[in-house]
Amino acid sequence: MRNKAHISDPLWRLALQQDGVLGHGQVAAQGYSRHHIQRFLDDRVLWQLIRGIYGLSPEPSWTGLAWGGVLLGGDGAALGGRSAGHLYGLCDAPSTIDVLVPRRAKDRGCWRFSNTRPDAVGTLPRTRIDETALALCAEAAPVGVLSILSRTVGDRLTTAGRMIAELGRRPNLRNRGLILEVLGDVAAGVHSALEERFCSLLRSHGLPEPVRQGSVAGGTFSDNVYEEFMVVIELDGRLGHEGAGKWRDMKRDNRNALVGWITLRYGWWDVVERPCEVAAQIAELLRSRGWKGNVRFCATCRA
Question: In which order are the strands placed within the sheet that holds 231-236?
Answer without folding.
Answer: 211-215, 221-226, 231-236, 262-267
